[in-house]
Amino acid sequence: MNQNEKAKAFGALHRKGDPVVLYNIWDAGTAKAVADAGTKALATGSWSVAAAHGYPDGEKLPMSVLVETARSITAVIDLPLSVDFEGAYSTEPAGAAANVAKLVDVGAIGINFEDRVVEGDGLYPVEKQTARIRAIREMAEGKNIPFFINARTDLFLAESDLSKHAGLVDEAIERGRAYAAAGGSGFFVPGLIEPALIEKICAASPLPVNIMMRTGAPDLTALAKLGVGRISYGPGPYRSMMEKLKQDAAAIYSRL
């Protein structure tokens, strides 16, 4: 498949009630392992890519390293690749679009794009975030790529008190609709695990909803029944692999 075909195929995988499942990767080696396991598409996790290079999350990883990571994956795996691009390393629409263009140029067909102010506090106002999404969409259209913008809201991830999540649903729905109108392709609500709230957002969202697996989240079958269109695993795979690595190493060194 060429890049345009990969982008179309990736978008088609997002079906409400029949979600695409993305076991997040962080380099070409993990991309090959997950591809060999049978996935139809690949997606990086920002936390994992940063940690694999010794950096914390939050755009601390140099963007050039992230772009090169994407290049190395698309060079060896012929599957659609979405990149977790956090806030696109820019607060301004033009800068965000220019940075995303670098990922398009190395073969990526989608991004996660969050509304959290990475180097500040809180979330961008809806008007500012929609301007940023719109700029990215216009850039992608200029390159004739049906680029998948997974518009992420951090409303739920930023609120650790799960009892308060119900009070955030209306704002989340408002943001999701605005992001769709601006050119978003999917709506990502990490941190949300309450089935009734997930179902409410899926029913109201014009975009396929992405849920991130975490402790307490419904299983894959349950999420599909709630209307979810995409399921991802975030930093879970990296943490699991690193824990296994430490355990294996500790078993060896404990004998010395």
UniProtKB/TrEMBL annotation:
Q: Name one Pfam family in it.
A: PEP_mutase
Q: Keywords for this entry?
A: Lyase
- Ranges in coiled-coil conformation: none
Keyword Lyase recorded: yes
At the top level of its lineage, which domain of life is listed?
Bacteria
Enumerate the GO terms in the molecular function aspect. lyase activity
Entry-linked SUPFAM superfamilies = Phosphoenolpyruvate/pyruvate domain
Which InterPro entries does the entry link to? ICL/PEPM, Pyrv/PenolPyrv_kinase-like_dom, Pyrv_kinase-like_dom_sf
Q: What is the protein's given name?
A: 2-methylisocitrate lyase-like PEP mutase family enzyme
Q: Which organism is it from?
A: Rhizobium fabae
Which taxonomic lineage does the organism of this UniProt entry have? Bacteria, Pseudomonadati, Pseudomonadota, Alphaproteobacteria, Hyphomicrobiales
